[in-house]
Amino acid sequence: MQKRAIAVHDISCVGRCSLTVALPVLSAAGLNTAVVPTALLSTHTGEFTGYTHMDLSDQLHPIAQHLSTLGLHYDTFYSGYLANGAQADEVLRMMDLLCDAQTHIFVDPAFGDHGRMYSLMDESMPRQMRRLVSRARTIVPNKTEAAFLLGEPYPGEEADEACISDYCCRLAQLGPQNVVITDVSFRPGQTGVAVYSQGMAQPVYLFRERIDRVFHGTGDVFASFLLGALMNNQPLETAVNTALDFTHAGIRETLASGEPLRYGVQFEKVLPAYWERLMQK
Ligand code: PXL
């Protein structure tokens, strides 16, 4: 039977992030994907100014309530960028209404990067996002979000293995079975992720060549590729490798095209190869 996903993120009309990434990637992974927008923005808040922003908090519960009457099973519930911290309450209520014991709750706590929270975030966001993290089976914070979720200051670009390993263990203690921390680097020229599951003594680290530019929406592209691979039954480490490969392939396409990086990663061009990889059993 075809698997069903529900993705709960903002819609940024232009800029390739959130739902405009999650929907095509999960669809390419063969999932029947429902979308619930948390906010509507004209662009993401990264390298644009003058964007519009509409908070859709008051829609989340009515939408979830109606959807719950349909009696559908969601194989995964994928949450990301929220309009404000209080919206976490609404997302938890959605989980109550729409998830069952088999639903893979996958939380991308998308609220910051490079040591700072995103522009529109309020101070309650790390504490509120921690509540979603506690309900999740898998979380994919970047290094900034991992630190802030734990109430720690940003460890800087040079966070060492002991620091990242400590973050993984402490985040897993909040509840999630799987913790994948992105934007990890112990050496110039490399970037990668820490992959940790409850019960492991240490995370596994997977690296790729670092391309020293800021690519907007990379976290969303990586998380969506990862979830698509997990839902196609790839084991965690294999799925992370798949996500890293295709995120990097998308980044190379973007650089080769010359499109300004604020318009996001050209993931579209790698979707056929992604599908092929998922179909190799
Ligand atoms: O990619 C994360 C993200 C999602 N949604 C909005 C953003 C950002 C990052 O800046 O601004 C609106």
Strand residue content = 15-25%
* Strand arrangement in the largest pleated sheet: 3-2-1-4-5-8-9-10-11
Order of helices and strands: EHEEHEHEEEHEHHEEEHHH
- Name the poorly predicted regions: none
Q: Which ions, cofactors or small ligands are bound in this entry?
A: 3-hydroxy-5-(hydroxymethyl)-2-methylisonicotinaldehyde
Name of the level-1 CATH class: Alpha Beta
Q: What's the number of extended β-strand segments?
A: 11
- Give the name of the CATH superfamily: Ribokinase
Biggest pleated-sheet summary: 9 strands, mixed
Count of distinct structural domains: 1
What is the average per-residue confidence, as pLDDT, rounded to a whole number?
97
Terminal residue distance:
17 Å
Helical/strand content category: alpha/beta
Gyration radius from CA atoms, angstroms: 17 Å
Number of helices: 9
> Can you tell me the CATH architecture?
3-Layer(aba) Sandwich
Shape category: globular
CATH fold-level assignment: UDP-N-acetylmuramoyl-L-alanine:D-glutamate ligase
What is the helical fraction, as a range of percent? 25-40%
